[in-house]
Amino acid sequence: MHPILVLDGEFFKEISGNIGLTEDGFSVLVDDILLKHVGSIVKFFLDLSTIYFTDDRDLGHWLLCVTSKCVKELTLKNHKHNHYTLPFCIFDCLTVTYLDVTNFIVKPPSSKTLFPNLLKLTLKSIKFRPTKANYVLNTPLLSSLTLIACNGVHLLTLSAPRIQFLTINDSHDIHAIFFVNFSNVRELLFREESYYKEGRFITWSLLLYLCPNLTRLVLINSCIQVFNTSRERNIGEVTHYLEDPNCVDKQFENLEFVELRKFEGTQFEVYFLKQILAYSPLLSRMIVEPSDDIDVAEFLDLYEELMMSLKASPRVKVIVVPYGQVA
User: Fold this and answer.
1) Residue 203's pLDDT is what?
2) Which value, to the nearest 10 degrees, does the dihedral of the CA atoms of residues 267, 269, 270, 274 take?
3) Which of 129, 191, 211, 274 could form a disulfide with 169 if both were Cys (CB 3.0 to 4.6 A apart)?
4) Would you say 98 and 77 are in contact if contact means Cβ atoms under 8 Å apart?
5) Which part of the chain is the FBD domain (predicted)?
């Protein structure tokens, strides 16, 4: 009757040591636990990495059982080379509010509303395989979304009118249009270190324009490079664009906190920081983490340049943190 079931690697290792499970015994064990369980399951955590010979049918059977027991928090981990397909029963589960999935294939069904009551969604190493391009994923109550190393995101249009917290980490096929529906986002963390393909050119000014209500923004240095140099031959064009007074046509009225990690002293980073300082009247703190490769004297000159630049906020503090440290 326990409402919290955590079947992780440590659990399977301990059980295997105690009762000497055979390879196919792991699947039998999960079957046994769920079939004998009585009552609701509030939280279910399953790590498939140590389970042998599991297929999509086993997984579908288990999650159908779990979603029928009013589960609220669901975590599925998979560190195998093969990908399982996320069962359809999860998409329309009325009770799940927290979902964390690692290393799965996601084929969303043809439905107008998916994850009807989901509040927080974390997807890692996911391969999206929708039935058609520009598939609209409608998550009406979602407030927090994290995408890490996901593939096929460009095939989706996410409708999440209540989303406030957005984290994107190395999901490098995202197009600018992906951000169109995120006007209510308050906090954005964006890390992109993979090669950015032509046709997916995003500038940070466009990003801020599409997310006008941001209060907190965290970018990794490579984001600045990626947003502005889809190809080397575009550097001059982009530089001209950034120097144009119309590059930023309005203030970032709600921005209070900006953090730039792995600062390397490029012209794009300096433009970015100066524009943020000049157009953010509520900005209270700007954190800059110099790259471990940047020369100290060079960075001090750039820091002095920033301190002398125009500032819209009279109370802003520019803070330098050593590489790899948390401010």
Assistant:
1) 66
2) 140
3) 191
4) no
5) 254-321
- For CA atoms 143, 326, 261, 311, give the dihedral sign: positive
List 87's β-bridge partners, or say none: none
Residue 261: its pLDDT value, please? 86
Return the higher-pLDDT residue of 253 and 243: 253
Nearest to 145 by CA among 119, 125, 170: 119
E strands along the chain, which residues? Answer: 4-7, 43-47, 73-77, 84-85, 98-102, 104-106, 120-124, 127-128, 135-138, 144-148, 156-159, 165-169, 187-191, 216-220, 257-263, 285-290, 317-320
Q: Residues, the chain, total?
A: 327
Residue linked to tokens 């060079």:
298
Residue ranges of alpha helices (H) inside the chain are 9-19, 25-36, 56-67, 204-210, 221-228, 235-243, 267-279, 296-308
Query: Tokens for 32?
Result: 């046994």
* Pairwise CA distance, residues 43 & 65, whole Å: 13
**Does the pLDDT value for residue 15 go beyond 60?**
yes
Tell me phi and psi for residue 27, to 5 degrees: -65, -40
May I ask the CATH class of domain 1-152?
A: alpha beta
Beta bridge pairs of residue 119? none
How far apart CA 176 and CA 153 sit, in angstroms, is: 11
Per-residue CA distances from 278 to 40, 98, 111, 190, 204 (Å): 54, 39, 45, 22, 15
